Amino acid sequence: MTGGLLEVDGLGFRHADAAPDAPPAIEAVSFSVPGGSLVAVVGPSGSGKTTLLRCVAGLVRPTAGEIRLDGRPIDGVPDATAVVFQDYGRSLFPWMSVADNVDLPLRRLGLAPAERRTRVSDALAEVGLAGTEASYPWQLSGGMQQRVAIARAMAYRPRLLLMDEPFASVDAQVRADLQELTLSVWQAHGSTVLFVTHDIDEAVYLADRVVVLSPAPARVAADVAVGLPRPRDQIATRSSAAFVELRARVARLIRR
Amino acid sequence: MTAVARAQPNASDGAGIGLRLAVIVGLAVAWELVALLANDPVYWPRFSAVAARLWEAWLANPAAWVESAWPSTWRLLAGWIGAVVSGIAIGTLIGLSASARAYVNPLVEFLRSIPPPALLPLFIVLLGIGDGMKVAMIGFGAAWPILLNTADGVASVEPMRRETARVYGLTGRDVLARIVLPSAGPRIFAGLRVSLSIAVILMVISELFATVDGIGFELIQAQRSFRMLDAWAIILLLGLIGYALNTVLGLVERRVLAWQLGATRSER
Ligand SMILES: Nc1ncnc2c1ncn2[C@@H]1O[C@H](COP(=O)(O)OP(=O)(O)OP(=O)(O)O)[C@@H](O)[C@H]1O
Ligand SMILES: [Mg+2]
Questions:
Q1: How confident is the model over A208-253, as pLDDT tens digits?
Q2: I want to staple B170 with a disulfide (CB 3.0 to 4.6 A). Which of A31, B70, B150, B174 is the partner?
């Protein structure tokens, strides 16, 4: 199952409760994510990245323009979509064990119980949380909770994976591990991934393309093809001249 | 990798029980002393006399259990369980829909401000003076805190948790049973506790009029024939029943809401 083609076309969004004279959060954003590719969205804080992601997830309706998946306009949450929210703590369920949190979305997929159990324990092992199945989210540190949310998305094997600054609260080593994990899961399952971050390094390292948003109201300031060879390597790729040059280019685009 | 911040058993539990016992014993001693000073055994019986009467007339008297305590207790429980079921069910329906809340709220506020004892004459006309009337009155009065708290708890599920459920396409049943109701659990239990004390009060009131058995009936009989010692013993008995019911509910709550204790403790 490969991921679908995602097209964001003239997207505009204005919060219903925003001040009447405030500019919209998003103004005419267009870009596309080819099926099975990984596109990163970067932009300064408050530029509308989370809002964009919520539109793509079908959680809010755009006030202008259209979002299409495989050519069909999305209306509500598209099938087989997983979201890793920026605010992971509030997206986990404190009354469920870690395993039940990861298992919850699998319940309606019609999988055999044994298959569900393997998926849960595999996903937890992949994010380095083997053995925490019976713990509760509030017994884990913030970074560990975020990894539970990531494991939940991975176990679901989505066609469209939306991640909102997913590694913001983990230390550098874990962050590198989770970047590798994201790449390997993405390559294994061929999902289409939209990855929001404000970390330029991370965007360039992971993505096929980097969409740079302007400060609010969000517009596409640039759409940069990354073109670094895969498989990428934390040390070799990051120290290559091409990487350094791309990173500087994106940084200049954001600052402008 | 090990889990951090595991919930610690509350170290002050043992000391807490000791302190609570000390307060109760202190009150009993104070009562005893005041009664001794008042020196009026008919109207101000001593605590020891009341406790002895409670023991011989009720606790050690199987006949009283069968003839009075049991009829009262089952009506109390039947009314309260009816209130629990209908309060949670209707409260959930109201809580799930913002428009239902807008329409139903004024009606709910109106109905719940009617003191249930004021409805007693109506209930007697409609349902007679039998058990059905008493159960209905207990249930009617006890349902409101549960209904309102459930509606509130259901309506205030963390929006991000609802969105997570939407993203992963959870079925309506899973959303209700695994997300909405557990998340409303703390509010629901707060309602259950309030409603249990209301149910005990209404049980007594429903037995003060037009009745032939029950603890409230015995109380009014004792008062009418100036048996103050018996009246005091019955009041003590009611306290014991309320305390026992609350303790059981508290134990259930600690089991069901164990996650909440841990979650709030680790937030500090
Ligand atoms: N519920 C809301 N009502 C009104 N305005 C909102 C609401 N949520 C966000 N905004 C506004 O929309 C704009 C974009 O917010 P958004 O959360 O999408 O930014 P972001 O790029 O994700 O920021 P960050 O990097 O800090 O997460 C901001 O100016 C914000 O003030
Ligand atoms: Mg954001």
A1: 999 999 988 889 999 999 999 999 999 999 999 999 999 999 999 9
A2: B174
Cβ A140 vs Cβ A132: under 8 Å: yes
CA distance B50 to A6: 79
Q: What distance in Å separates residue A127's CA from the closest CA in chain B?
A: 11
Helices (H), A57-171: 98-103, 113-126, 142-155
ipTM associated with this complex: 0.91
If you measure from the C-alpha of residue A48 to the centroid of ligand 1, how many angstroms do you get, rounded to a whole number? 5
Average pLDDT, integer, range A4-26: 91
Q: Residue A49 Cα, ligand 2 centroid: separation in angstroms?
A: 5
Whether A96 has its CB under 8 Å from any CB of chain B: the answer is yes
Scan residues 106-145 of A and list those with Cβ closer than 8 Å to B. Answer: 107-108, 128-132, 135-136, 138-141, 144
Is A36 touching ligand 1 by the criterion CB < 6 Å?
A: no
Q: Which CATH number fits domain B68-267: 2.40.70.10, 2.130.10.10, 3.20.20.370, 1.10.3720.10?
A: 1.10.3720.10
- The full set of domain ranges for chain B reads 68-267
B185 touches chain A (CB under 8 A): yes
| Confidence bin at B200 (pLDDT 50/70/90) | very high
Contacts of A139 in chain B (CB under 8 A): 3-7, 262, 266
CA distance A9 to A31: 7
Q: In what order do the strands lie in the sheet with A64-69?
A: A26-33, A6-13, A64-69, A72-73
pLDDT averaged over chain A? 93
As a residue count, chain A comes to 256
Residues in A closer than 8 angstroms to B174, CB to CB, are: 104, 107-108
Q: Is B91 exposed, middle or buried (0-12, 13-18, 19+ CB in 10 A)?
A: buried
CB of residue A45 inside a 6 A radius of ligand 1: yes
Instruction: Please give the angle made by the CA atoms of B203, B205 and B211, to the nearest 5 degrees.
Output: 85
- CA–CA gap between residue A70 and residue A6 (Å, rounded): 6
- B153 Cβ contact partners less than 8 Å away, ≥ 6 residues apart: B95, B183, B184, B185, B186, B187, B188
Sheet hosting strand A38-42, strand order edge to edge: A81-84, A160-164, A192-197, A38-42, A209-213, A220-225
Quick one: pLDDT at residue A121? 96
Comparing CB atoms, the residue among A83, A104, A135 nearest residue B3 is A135
Q: For residues B191 and B114, give the distance between their C-alpha atoms in angstroms, rounded to a whole number.
A: 18
Tell me the residues of chain A between 26 and 65 that have a Cβ less than 8 Å away from chain B.
57, 59
